[in-house]
Amino acid sequence: MEYVLLVSVLISFVLCVTFLPMWIHACRRLKLTWEDMNKFGHPKNIASSGGVIVIMAFILGVLSYIALKTFLFGGQSKALEIFALLTVILILAIVALVDDLLGWKNNGLPIRIRILLAIAASIPLIVINAGTHFMNLPFIGIVDFGILYPLFLIPLAVVGASTTYNFLAGYNGLEAGQGILILSFLSFVAYATGSAWLGIVGLCMVGALLGFWIFNKVPAKVFPGDVMTYGVGALIAGMAILGNFEKIAFVVFIPYVLEVILKVRGGLKKHSFGIPTKVQLRRKLFI
Fold first, then answer.
1. Which residues contact 150 (CB under 8 A, 6 or more apart)?
2. Bridge-partner residues for 134, per DSSP?
C-alpha cells in the first residue's frame, strides 16, 4: 500500500522535464549561457544553472511525499528530519546560485566564503542532533564522538560533500549521471537498513536528475551549475548522517577524495574538461 508514496519520485521527474525547457529558453533569451568545452569550437550557447529546476523539482517531490504520508496514512514521522535536510539543501542552493551569478563577471565567491556559508548551511542538522554519535571504525572499534559529532563531523560532512561533488565534472551528463548512480545506491542502502523514508527522499532527487540528464547528456542543452552539485553533495552527506551509514557514503566518495588531492596538488587552479580535438572530430565523421 505504501508503494504509492513512490509517486513522489515520478512527480520530481515530471516537474523537471516540464520546466527545464522553459528555463533553457529563458536563459538563451537573457544571454545567461556558458561555453561548452565538450563541443568543437566551444560554442557559448548552453543554458546555465539548470540545477535551479532540479532542486525545485526535488523539493516539491519531497513535499508531495510528506503530503501523501500525512493525508493518506495519517503519519508525520521523520518530518522534522526531512525539513532540516531540505533547509540545508535550500540554503546551499541559494549560496550556489549567487556563486553562479557572480561567475559571469569574476571567479564567483571566494573559497573561504563558500566554506563558511556551507558550515552555516549545516546548522539545521546540528540543531536537531541528527544521526548517532557512535561509529564503528576499522581497527579501532566503536567510538563515541559525543558532542563532537554534531559540532564537528556534521559540518565537515556537509562542507566536504557539497563543495567537492563538482570536482569530478567536465563532461556533458557526468555530474547528473554520478548523482543518479550514487543516490540510487544510497537509497537502496537506506531502505535495506530500515530507513525507507530516507530512501524515497533520495529517489526524489534521482527522479529530478533523470529528468535533467535528458537535457544535459551529450550534446548538452543546459549545464547544472553549482546549484545542482552543491544540492546533490549536501543530500549525500545528509542521507549518510540521518541513515547512519557514513562509512558506506565515504567509500562511495573515495574518487572525489582522490580528485581533491589532485586539485590541491595543482593549487586549486587546474580545471578538468573533456575537450574535443580535430582528430576526434574527423574520427566521429568517419564513423
1. 125, 126, 129, 130, 131, 133
2. 144
Tell me the C-alpha to C-alpha distance, in Å, between residue 132 and each of 87, 200, 202, 255.
20, 21, 20, 26
C-alpha dist (Å) from residue 104 to 38, 101, 160, 224: 19, 6, 25, 15
Instruction: Write out pLDDT tens, residues 86-106.
Output: 999 999 999 999 888 876 556
Whether the bond into 124 is cis, omega within 30 of 0: no
Q: What does the DSSP 8-state code read for residue 220?
A: P
Residue 173's region, left for phi above 0, alpha for psi from -120 to 50, else beta, is left
Dihedral sign for Cα atoms in the order 147, 150, 153, 159: negative
- Asked if 61 contacts 210 with a C-beta cutoff of 8 angstroms, the reply is no
Spatial distance between the Cα atoms of 131 and 238, rounded to a whole number of angstroms: 9
Nearest to 209 by CA among 71, 57, 79: 57
Q: Report the range out of 1-5, 38-42, 167-171, 199-203 with the highest average pLDDT.
A: 199-203
Measured distance CA(239)–CA(91) in Å, rounded? 17
Residue of 90 and 143 predicted with greater confidence: 90
Contacts for 4 with CB less than 8 Å, ≥ 6 apart: 68, 72
Q: What angle do CA 168, 158, 99 make, to 5 degrees?
A: 65
Q: Which residues contact residue 179 at a Cβ distance below 8 angstroms, ignoring those fewer than 6 apart?
A: 165, 205, 206, 209, 228, 232
Q: At residue 287, does pLDDT exceed 50?
A: no
The pLDDT of residue 93 is 94
For position 286, what pLDDT does the model report?
38
Angle at 228 between CA 227 and CA 231, to 5 degrees: 90
Query: Phi and psi of 136, rounded to 5°?
Result: -90, 105
Give the three cell numbers for residue 84: 532540516
